[in-house]
Specification:
The complex is a heterodimer. Chain A is α+β, with helices and mostly antiparallel strands. In chain A, 33% of the residues lie in helices and 14% in strands. In chain B, helix 3 (26-43) packs across helix 6 (105-120). The chains are: A alpha+beta, B mainly alpha.
């Protein structure tokens, strides 16, 4: 039996599909179980359970006019649309919707790189363009700009930015939504809108001044459901001339606090690219005694950790620093960072890393020239798309909870303790322990990772993971740590934690949702924002 | 796979591919291009990133077959279009599914044609 859209019978569904085929052609509408299988969430922890949310159908328009027509058809039939770009949002729901029976609006065929401007350093792309596509476009034309690419590189710059994805280069570029500049949106009534300078006919600054005049609604379309983004501009970094790395290690556990403070200064001053924090003590987790210490209920004392580090002859923390720019500038910045930190943290030591002119050679890209083991993924650091990250995928995939925490060493220790204790009841690897280092993906905050694997043939394991995800989201929120991004099955849990003043934020968003999308056809429930039509039954 | 793994300056490789493709039948040439874009970043013959000896998909198949079959898809002569369709549309382990909007049935048939040729050569 086919999956039907909400409030619709077989005859109504058939009429809807007929209208879609009339708009985009017979070959670009799907509804059979076979065709819809790839639209399921490959990484779902609720696979084949009543909680799994599946689409009824999918439609792939070829251009903006067809997107507008599909939206009008959906509105006429009152069928929820779930827009996807390249559909690669694995770990965050893949292509699966928030409402059972939604029609996936598959934007893969909108795959034009409309412009890359290497003089003014921006691009304008459609949602079906992948990072691979954009990189190839730039390389084939010899353009001197660098993209900031997340892992893996088959995702869409538009889709990734709209889910507030992050990358690996300079701060102003690796916050992908923050680096966007101008968007075109098909609104729930099929109307076409452009934000910023795109709203001013004849303006040639759409990708250079994001605001235009008056309120800027672009934030509503990130993790939102107020329209379908059909074009998006991004600021690009001019191709740097040189790349340099350096490593700094500090001996004591509490040195992390001072180290973080220095890194904040370096990063916010624009001197460093992404910084990788790590604990050399992680190498000891295979030792049962150290494992017990690092995952101890309530956390170990600083003295216990320092004693373990001293006994092993290891430093407590390390940072990989990266510099992009002119050769002399990268050297001066490295020397400044090194001297600044070593003069302030007794016992700190520095190692010169790799350095070379860009573009990198094949050997340099292979990361064979780094003089010490490094957590930096070389291609990502240089804005080169890759699927190499897939080597970390275990079992049949994973789900992700990435709580946001302040860039403060004490906050890092607190999250280690609180979430380490919170996850103890689940038979999972220690995502939070006394050696867990913060990620510095977003430009001005830290995150940590909780990403348990799923197994499509092991419902008991998946159920445990599902419980663990909800538990971790709830415990983190009790301490002021919220998720930055979530799969549809967790979006209500996460949205509910952003509850200041009785949930005034969500009330405001839902009031707007009802006003601009009265039939609730654009991704109802996305971001925890439900239209009136689905509010009572849809919210988890 | 190399020009998708992008470990060499791209224009030179594009030229290489174009010249190599001139003598191919159109379906094989199309299959080569589709393979390079969609499959090779995980299933190519070359090394993986950051000193990994193999790309992720190739490494997974090396472990799965333990020498009984080639790990790199371009060395496999037993991958017909129906077999590839099964893996592409239904996935396998950590390999997710691919939709018809991104890989058509004709694309998959072309991949099969290309792999038949690449494994023979």
């Amino acid at each position: 039996m086919s999956i039907l859209p909400p409030d619709m019978d077989e005859a109504g569904f058939a009429a809807f599909l007929t209208d879609l085929r009339g708009a985009v052609g017979e070959d670009w509408v799907w509804s059979s179980e076979t065709d819809m299988f790839p639209y399921r969430d490959a990484f779902s922890p609720v696979w084949n359970t009543p909680e799994e949310i599946q689409a009824s159908s999918a439609v792939a328009p070829a251009d903006v006019a067809q997107v507008q027509e599909v939206v009008r058809i959906a509105r006429r039939h009152r069928v929820p649309l779930h827009p996807i770009s390249t559909g690669k949002n694995f770990g965050y729901g893949g292509a699966s919707p928030n409402v059972q029976g939604s029609a996936v609006l598959d934007l893969k065929r909108l795959d034009r790189v409309i412009e890359v401007n290497a003089e003014r350093n921006y691009c304008l792309v459609e949602p079906g363009v992948s990072y691979f596509d954009l990189y190839r476009h730039i390389q084939e034309r010899g353009l001197k700009v660098m993209i900031d690419c997340p892992d893996p590189g088959w995702g869409s710059p538009v889709g990734n930015a709209l889910d507030r994805g992050v990358g690996y280069t300079m701060p102003q570029f690796r916050d992908h939504f923050g680096a966007h500049c101008g968007m075109e949106v098909v609104l729930p009534d099929g109307e076409l809108m452009r934000t910023g300078m795109g709203a001013l006919p004849g303006a040639d600054s759409w990708q250079e001044y994001p605001y235009g005049f008056g309120p800027d609604p672009s934030g509503l379309f990130a993790q939102g459901n107020f329209g379908v983004v059909t074009k998006m501009g991004f600021r690009l970094m001019p191709q740097p001339e040189y790349y340099r790395t350096g490593l700094i290690r500090v001996p004591r556990r509490r040195d992390l606090i001072t180290l973080v403070s220095h890194v904040n200064y370096l990063s916010d001053s624009g001197m460093v690219s992404e910084v990788r924090f790590a604990s050399p003590l992680s190498a000891l987790l295979g030792n049962a005694d150290f494992y017990a210490l690092a995952t101890k209920l309530g956390g170990p004392t600083d003295a216990e950790m320092d004693a373990a580090a001293s006994a092993a002859g290891l430093h407590s923390w390390a940072i990989d620093l990266q510099f992009l720019g002119p050769a002399a500038a990268t050297l001066a910045q490295w020397e400044y960072a090194r001297d600044r930190i070593l003069s302030d943290i007794p016992g700190a030591e520095a190692l010169d890393g790799d350095h070379f002119a860009l573009p990198a050679t094949e050997v340099q890209l292979a990361n064979d020239t780094q003089p010490y083991p490094s957590a930096i993924r070389r291609k990502g650091a240089l804005g080169i798309p890759s699927l190499g990250i897939w080597e970390i995928v275990r079992d049949d995939g994973h789900v992700g909870f990435f709580p946001v925490l302040p860039r403060d060493g004490e906050a890092v220790f607190a999250m280690q303790r609180v979430l380490g204790d919170a996850q103890r009841q689940f038979p999972l690897p220690p995502y939070f322990s006394a050696v867990t280092a913060p990620l510095f993906w977003h430009s001005s905050t830290f995150q940590m990772v909780f990403a348990p694997s799923i197994r499509r043939s092991d419902p008991e394991h998946n159920a445990m993971v599902h419980r663990a995800m909800k538990h971790m989201v709830a415990v983190a929120a009790e301490h002021g740590w919220g998720d930055y991004r979530a799969a549809p099955i967790y979006q209500d849990d996460v949205a509910a934690t952003y509850s200041f003043n009785g949930g005034s934020l969500r009330k405001f968003l839902e009031a707007m949702k009802d006003a601009v999308d009265p039939d609730g056809i654009i991704a109802p429930g996305r971001g925890g924002v439900w239209p009136a039509r689905f509010r009572e039954d849809g919210r988890a | 796979m190399k020009w998708l793994a992008i470990s060499l300056p791209l224009p030179a490789l594009v030229l290489t591919v174009s010249v190599a493709a001139q003598d191919e039948n159109p379906q094989v040439a199309h299959g080569r291009q589709v393979f390079e874009r969609h499959c090779a970043p995980c299933h190519g013959r070359g090394p993986g990133d950051d000193r990994s000896p193999m790309l992720s998909g190739t490494a997974a198949l090396a472990e799965k077959y333990d020498g009984a079959r080639p790990a790199a898809l371009e060395d496999r002569s037993d991958l017909s279009a129906p077999v590839i369709t099964l893996f592409v549309r239904r996935g396998s382990g950590a390999m997710p599914f691919f939709r018809a909007s991104e890989l058509s049935d004709a694309d998959i048939a072309a991949i099969a044609a290309y792999l038949a040729e690449s494994s023979a050569s």
